[in-house]
Amino acid sequence: MLKRFAFLLLLLIATHSLKAQFLMDMVDTSKDIGKGMLSIYKKFDHIRIGGYIQPQFQMAQDKAAKSYNGGDFATNVNNRFMIRRGRIRFDYIHFAEKKGPSVQFVFQFDGTERGVFIRDFWGRVFENKYQLFAFSVGMFARPFSYELNLSSSDRESPERGRMSQILMKTERDLGAMISFEPRKKDNPLRYLKIDAGLFNGPGLAATADFDSHKDLITRIALKPYPLTKNITVSAGASCLDGGFLQNTKYVYTINNNASGKTFTIDSTSTNNGKIAPRKYYGADIQVKIRNKAGYTELRAEFIAGTQTATSGTSETPAALLTGTDGYYVRKFNGAYFYLLQNIFNPHHQLIVKYDWYDPNTKVKSDDIGKPGTALTATDIKFATLGFGYIHYVNENLKLVLWYEKVTNEKTQLPGFTSDLKDDVFTCRLQFRF
Length: 433
Prior knowledge:
With 433 residues, the protein is mainly beta. The protein has one domain: Porin (Beta Barrel), CATH 2.40.160.10. The chain is 4% helix and 50% strand. The chain contains 2 helices and 18 strands. Strands 1-2-3-4-5-6-7-8-9-12-13-14-15-16-17-18 form a 16-stranded antiparallel beta barrel. The longest helix is centred in the N-terminal third of the chain and has 13 residues, at 2-14. The radius of gyration is 23 Å and the shape is globular. 34% of the residues are buried.
């Protein structure tokens, strides 16, 4: 079996055309937007192989620190070496300019010391008569948010924000999507892109869909538009209208009582069989300014909505509840802000990032931990200030030095009466081919 795989790998490499244009990964929605165009100059099939590896060393403020920067630290560990990501991607593209649809097929997997996992497995069809539409189906990134769709190999911060990781774990899901994106250079709508798709909902957190309800996700984006010779702007608006089956009659929502804000149970029998709501709304903007050293870039995104989960987490459930447990419905919001600045030249970059995630906007820090409120650590607001330096040695090698200062609300809940010691320093090398 190993010999067959080696032979196949050599065959794929041998058939790779060095001059073929590489179509953008569906994850890289705006970073390399020029690669999103379907090439109209090539009339041959080709295969491309690419990938990257991100070995890193991390040091936490305390042992067993809980972290969204590469996962929690083990019980007796405050520093670690790890391979954060090890990706290999295969693309096959068949170009058929004006003679029928063009086809792209992608397979990408992630291998680390924690195991090997599929990350992308999808196909995409481009219509060539009008050069306006594309249809995608399989396992791919959901078209919601700018940061969620920015490739981990291009993103300046080591990880996506806490909110992004919680609301859409691993970013991907199984589904189908139609895209409107004019590919002709003279089309007056060439800076507009619209994606709309139906998805299972649980994402890669579940091995299979557990109900018949689907999430409708849409995104309208302005691709990088030149305001002036030195300034470009891009923006987007995203919406997720989804949910999942309530297989229990027990539903908890926030209400006022004599002791303040508290979760109140609704055990009406008709709750069983309804759809638990997941509704997200987001808006983002990116401004890039050319200067002598390279670029200054500002990014911002705000997301708010309703999330249904459990008492112990605000992540979308990977399976339906069992027993007498109930679902918890929370209003949430969160945001992130980036400032990126090249220094000396484009090979050196400083980054400052601030983000927050408030999983329960209807309660205050003083409410959490009060007897009888049923509020837990899941309802605590976290904010993260990250800053770092990147040295782009060349197109194949990147050094990242990053420090995250994580702050949580101070509550009446034991263990959360003060700020946790969960700051993390990361030193990462990225090798890319």
